[in-house]
Amino acid sequence: MSEFQLAHRVPHLIVQPADLKHNPPESYLFVQDGLIIACGVLYALFYLFCMARTYADRTYPGAGFGGIQYLCLTMAYEVFYAFTTTSTLLEKVAFFIWFELDLGFALVALRRAHTPATRSVIQRNMIVGFFAALIGLKALALAYPDDREQITAYWTGILLQFPVGWVYLYLLCKHHGTQGHSLETWYVMPFH
User: Fold this and answer.
1) Residue 88 · residue 12 · CB < 8 Å
2) Cα Dmax for the chain
3) 16 and 22 Cβ atoms separated by less than 8 Å
4) Residues 143-176: tens digit of each pLDDT
């Protein structure tokens, strides 16, 4: 069995028990880490593309029903798991960069796509939702404890990101256009 000596020297390279059962070569950790980094870069690009199109079009998918409020859940995810799943400063910084991208997109969307009257209601809802989501994630972590909350982070991440793709697809079909999003957004969406 591989001893994964590299994983003992580089704290963020995690060897999961499921991985150990298959006895992969140590180079597997580089592939795993590279895929995680690539997903993070695509996540960042997704939000940058969304911000650019929202700024230019003065709308975003879901703007008519205040869809930006959903981002309070992903922002809570970024803050909560920055402290529960990370083991290095670099990982924490990455989570906070993603949080800042979520926050940046929310601010651009609020300023460009909403009137001042609806903006204040949405901001209030997002602040309340953020703290409620933090409490909910803590409750999930207590109900389903595991090493560094990896399993709850995985499943809650999927549950938070999956609807974004479906909303964009629905609105693309409904409006027959890409107003508020772009082809660049669609290129990175499957990886988001």
Assistant:
1) yes
2) 62
3) no
4) 998 877 878 888 898 888 777 777 777 777 777 7
Task: Report d(CA 69, CA 110) in Å as an integer.
Answer: 10
Q: In sequence order, what DSSP letters do the residues of 130-192 get, joined into one string?
A: HHHHHHHHHHHHHHS--GGGHHHHHHHHHHHHHHHHHHHHHHHHHHTS-TTS-HHHHHHGGG-
Q: In the numeric block, which tokens belong to residue 5?
A: 């000596």
d(CA 107, CA 123) in angstroms, rounded, equals: 9
What is the rounded distance in angstroms from the CA atom of residue 62 to the CA atom of residue 76? 20
DSSP 48-75: HHHHHHHHHHS--TTGGGTGGGGHHHHH
Q: CA 146, CA 33: separation in Å to the nearest integer?
A: 20
Q: Which two tokens stand for residue 188?
A: 């990175």
What would the two tokens of residue 94 be? 């990455």
Q: Which two tokens stand for residue 93?
A: 């910084």
State how far the Cα of 161 lies from the Cα of 46, in Å rounded to an integer. Answer: 12
Q: What angle do CA 19, 17, 80 make, to 5 degrees?
A: 105
Average per-residue pLDDT for the chain: 83
Q: Tokens 């969406």 sit at which residue?
A: 189
Each domain of the chain, given as residue ranges in start order, spans 5-191
